[in-house]
Write a structure and sequence with these properties.
This protein is mainly alpha-helical. The chain contains 15 helices and no strands.
Amino acid sequence: MGLEQGGIRRVECLDGLRGLAALWVLIGHMMILTGFRLPLLSEPDLGVDLFILLSGFLMVFQYQLRAGSEDWNTPGTWASFWARRFFRLAPLFYVTLAAALIAGPAIYESRVAIDSFLGQGLQPAERYTDASLANVTAHLSFVFGLLPDYAFRTPLPDWSLGLEMQFYAAFPFLVLLARRAGWVPAALIAAGIGVALALAAGAIGLDWPMPSFLPLKLHLFLCGMLIAADAGPGKRIWLHLAAAVLLAAIPIGGDQDVLHFVVREGVVLGFFALVHLRRLGPIDGVAKLLGSKPFHWLGELSYGTYLIHLLILQPVAAAVIGRFGTGLGALGRFVLTGAVVVPLTYALAFVTYKLVELPGQKLGKAVIRRVTGSAGRARQTVPEELAAP
């Protein structure tokens, strides 16, 4: 059942899943900002959890594809890995960060209008308006997720990018631990360390407004890693699944009500089925649908959709509220806001994909080739996908 043993070089359903995760976040935020709620869909944090699971899976999947050409005992391999991930996330993030810092005061006015109308507590002004050198530096360097005061301090949903970069920083060490101890023991050890660090941080009074500190979400990254990891001969893949289900139940890093618990476990089980049981009739049909061309493009635009949507959504939602108020009703506000926000967000995501993301990836490959020479060129034949939110 191992992915590598089957000669698989791409998991097509990953495209659709990351596309749906971004759409989930977009719809969830639209519901929060228009006052229209539906169970599950109005919980955008669950969409982020799906992104995290996919990211853990993708990193191990690509590690196994490169196993014959990369030596993970050498720092040069780590540097190439970090460079690839940086040039995946940074170009578009820097562009949207600049837009967010410039438009921050205007977006904050929109958010005040929304929250006042809906009777929600007002957001701190500095979250939208802080263009200080310290805040900008923390974001440009991607260390902001480690710092409670800066982890949630722009109009973007970028807290998860700081989290993602911490995972990338830790990934080589997780690989080395897994090579020595095995994937399941390594995951359990790493999760235990993560829980201990999270509890220690809470004990000394550190409080993140969003779970941007890696120990708060490491267990979900590890779930994805276990689903991708080659279990070897026999049926040890079921041990991987059991460990992933156990790790998904760790009660830290966000809401811990019954709904969140059930959905997280369901996402783990469903993703495992799509990857390892895809030859079964109904599951194969779902996997093929998620790998189809429309879902492929939904996935390609997922990163841009995730980063851009709040910059559009908050002014549009405020404008709809200002124009129609209570006369339109929550459902009407949601539909009208979505009619503007969804096509505009995806249009801008497409433009930035072509003009920012793809050139950024090309630049990253050029940098790696220059540093690593012919070996670097060989490594770039392995397909890259983006699961990060």
